[in-house]
Amino acid sequence: MMPVAPLWGFFTYIRDRSPVPLSIDQYFYLLQAIHRMDLSYLQTKKDLLRFTKLFWLPDLRFEKQYDSVFASFMDWDSILKHKESPAEVASEVFEHKAFVDKEHLEKQFRPIDEPKQKEQISIKKPESKPLVDFQLLVKETQSTTGVDEPSIGAMIPHDFVLSDLAIVPFDRRHFVQRLRRKVETTEQILSDILDLPLIVNRFAETGFIDDIIYETQDTQKSKVVLLADRFGSMVAHEFLEHHFDQSLRQIPYCDYQHYFFYNWPKEITEGIHYELQPARKGAEVFYTSKHHWDRNTWFLILSDAGAHSGVVNRERMKHTMKFWKYLQSISSHVFWINPVPIEYMEDCTASRLQMSIPMVHPDQHSLNTMIFERKPLPV
After folding, report:
1. Which of these, 240, 223, 242, 243, lies nearest to 182 by C-alpha position?
2. For the chain, what are the domain ranges?
3. pLDDT tens digits for range 224-238
4. Is the pTM here over 0.90, yes or no?
C-alpha cells in the first residue's frame, strides 16, 4: 500500500491558484525543512502562512493574492472560534489530519480487526476540504501478507529534476558576474616571459647582465568569506546557503572560505578572536587569530538573526554586535543577508539588530541595492 504524501493536497491547492508558478521541487523543499525543524515554530495558521511564503512566494508583489489563496484553502475561522486556547487550536487543527478526504483515510489507516463504526473524524468539516497534518508522519500499514511497510517519518523518494533556481530568489549567473567585478583587486606578479628591452638597457649601462628580469603582468585576485548561521530555524534556509556557496565558488582566482556557526560565533578572546566551524567535512576548526584577511576581503553573513523566535534575546544582540564590529575592523565590505524579510519581523532580536546592522533579503533587487550599488562604509 502506497503512503499518502504529506501536505500534498495543500500544495496542489496552492499551486493551482497561486499567482506565481510552483514546481514539485518547492513542495519537497518545504517538506524537507519541516521534517528537520522544531515543530514548535508551526503552532498557528499565521506561522504556516509566513513559513510557506519562504518557499512558495519568490515575488512579494503577489503577496496579497497569495494570502487570499491561503485563506481560501479551508474555513479557518469556523474551526478557531470553537476553541478557547491557541494550544487547543493547534492540537485540533494541525496534529491529527492528513491531506486526504475522510473516506480515503478510513480505508487506509483503519486496523484490520476494528469495525468501521469506531472510525470518527473529530472536526466537522466538509469532506471536500482537506485538513493539515504538521507532524508529517505516514502511519505504518499492515499488508495482506503480514509484512510491515515502515514509513513513519520517512521522506518520500524524490529525484529533483528541476534546478534549484526554481525557488531561489536571485539568479546565480547574474549574482556571480556582478559580484566578481566588485570583489576583484588588481595585483602585479612576475610572468615567465623575459623582459628583453630592460635587460638590454641594463647591459648597455653596466656592460654586463647582473640579473634575469621577467615581465610583470596584472592579475585579478579576490577574497570572499561566507559565514552561515545553521541549525534551529535556519534549517529551513539551508538551500540558500548551498546556493550562495555554489555561486561564490564560480568566481575565478578567488580565495573563497566557507564557515558556519550557531546563533553567533564562539568567542575565544572577547571581541578579538573567534572560533568558526568549517563547512567542508573533515576540515579543522578555524580560529580567526590565524586569519589572512585584509581590507579587500568581502564578508557575507547569512543568518536570520533570531527573526523566527519572536522574542528579544539580549545575549544574542550583544554577541552579534561584537562580531559585526570585529569584522568591520578588518574590512568595510561586510554584508548581512537575512532570509526573513524585514516586513515580516515583529519585535524580535533581528528587528532590533537591523537598526544598527544593515540587513538585506536575498532577492535580486535587494542584493543589487545593498551590495552592488552601496558604497562601502569607512573602516
Report:
1. 223
2. 8-161, 172-185+221-372
3. 999 999 988 888 888
4. no
